Amino acid sequence: MCGIVGYVGHRDAADVLVNALTRLAYRGYDSAGIAAFGNGKISVAKSKGKLKDLIDKMANEGKPLGKAGIGHTRWATHGEPSDVNSHPHSGAKVTLVHNGIIENYKELKNFLIQDGRTFLSDTDTEVVAQLLDHYYTYISDPVKAIIRTTQDLRGSFALGIVFQDYPDNVFAVRRESPLVIGVGEGESFIASDVPAIIEYTKDYYLLEHDEIAVLSPDGIKVYDSHYRPVIKTLKTADWDVDAVGKGGYPHYMIKEINEQPTAIKNTVVPRIKDGMPNLEECSIDPEALRKIRNIFIVACGTAMHSGMVGKYVMEELARTHVTVDIASEFRYRNPIIGEGDLIIIVSQSGETADSLAAMRLAKQKGAKTLAIVNAMGSTIAREADMLIYTHAGPEISVASTKAYMVQLSVMYLFAFELAFAKGTIDEEQYKYYTSKLLETPDMVQKVIESTTETAQKISTQLITADSLLYIGRGLDYALSMEGSLKLKEISYIHSESYAAGELKHGTISLITKDMPVIAVATQSALYEKTVSNIKEVKARGAKVVMICKEGDDVPSDVADFVLKVPDFEECLLPMLVCVPLQLIAYYTAVQRGNDVDQPRNLAKSVTVE
Length: 609
Ligand code: M6R
Prior knowledge:
CATH topology of the largest domain: Rossmann fold
Strand order of the largest sheet: 3-2-4-1-10-9-11-14
Number of helices: 17
Radius of gyration: 25 Å
Bound molecules: 5-amino-5-deoxy-1-O-phosphono-D-mannitol
Number of strands: 26
CATH superfamily of the largest domain: Glucose-6-phosphate isomerase like protein, domain 1
CATH architecture of the largest domain: 3-Layer(aba) Sandwich
């Protein structure tokens, strides 16, 4: 989704802004632009396309000069990607960039048109620029004008603003959309996310809803919506610029696949005390766990898929009913929840609009909320009753890999704790499962090493396919959902995941020799059943890739390719098997020549519904 940045200090603003925008590119965008303050005026450069197009344009036409400015990467919502719809947008004395959606922009636009204003673009953002300009004409104090403007806005926004009359300041305000304020020596920054500015500073403030920041080279002032000064707490990122580079890998995705063992260690090890999980620092109390009636895991995309694995494990070990819901469905279906229910919201970014809305709805209805979030200080993390941070570090590739892996590891930690609290496993089992979870970083490392070559060979067979099917039963089915999503989002090959036993109720009619099937069969109790289903697709001509455990007896006529993972504690196998599924998706996309890290039409952080 859109990314915004801002800078004021001693450096060339355009250079800092373009550099910071490059680090936000992972969020997904289709145009970019900057504005800087120099020679007594605000100059703007903007272009449809990638940052390279903007850089080329500035090389030909000149770049905005100055030591203060704002920048933007746009992911089109209102109006097609074009030069004119790109941000920044301006009024007579105001120029701004925006991340979010203004829901009442039409009525505001009508009001401004009646007031004699004209518009160049189709965007909701230009309406905000003109509205702010309108109020600034009457209220010459920029902070007061911002406050008045935000009173009229419905929807979500993070705004970076420069005023013609304030050459040494950048202003910012937010509601719902994320925004951080970077604190440097003699310089200040704004950004949608810390990675954008980590090269310049690790220190930052989180802006709360409707707070206004005024940045100058000498420091930052923050006000609330009543113009009262606010004292902010300084935060420091615990990772550095290396974490947001490719570290010698060709793509972020493969770097992040390789970071998974470390990510699991960072997430799990600090939560283990005396051989057992301890989630007290996350405000999770065993007594409260004992009383939980129903659990709902609510999330989107990959994060929701981690919940599918969580459901199987929690129901099996803790004998507690778990429903997994897609956040965009949950929030509009008047869910039957209330006191005694726990809603687990899973989100890498902690800003996904539907997941956030689902969490707020659950709270309203009296349920307790637990957030499993990767991004520190994000809105979901801040608003949940209980919080377990995953420690994957920044995930840059749009296709989520290491975030999924640590979400799984937290699902297990929580399931073990819940089962022990409910008395459905004893201390010996509790310690056994925990010790196995502590072995997963080494096991995952082994699987990366042992399956890469086979995954590459398998993907060579898939690159010409038009459509693919992933099948499995139980935990293998839950995992297949993620394997299928991973493949389709980056390779652009259509794929579906299906419960293997359900195939013959309709979907098997799709099977031909041109429809490869990836069958996951790692659960002993279901192995024979899945093998029968594989035989059914094989008999109809499908090319089959089978993923199973070392030591499994694979009948010779069942699969064209067999990929084996180590024989390990079965409930934890999704953590191992997701690796070859990620690798197959990665190498298929690479061989098809796709933009692996920034697949078409996708954004990393989905802050609009
Ligand atoms: O930031 P979130 O985890 O809330 O994002 C949810 C989904 O948009 C996300 O998991 C998406 O499906 C993945 N990027 C796909 O790889």
